Fold this sequence. Notes:
By secondary structure, this protein is an alpha+beta fold. Helix content is 34%, strand content 32%.
Amino acid sequence: MEKVIETTFKQVLSNLHKVDNWETCVLVMEYYNREPGVGYKAYCTNKSGQNVDIDADVNYDFLFLYKIIEWNRENATSSNLWNKAQFSLNIKGSFEIKTWWDEEFQKKLYNED
Length: 113
């Protein structure tokens, strides 16, 4: 999974020439667990504390999605299911991964009660 994150962030970082004085880059992903697909929102926080949206490159979406699905297939259990993930990269190179189950997102997406 770390290799997937590293590759993804290298590609997200290639869009950072549009953001001056960035400090943190965040990629938020919504993983649709009943059909193929994933949603992205990427943004950077600059040193002034402002969020600047950056584009997710369609050229790597398919590779990233494949890797996420592969990772999820190998690691998912009934106790660690997730449908949202957040990857944060600090300008110093450290990163943090958070995954969680968003019940409201699931209900909205699939009209579940």
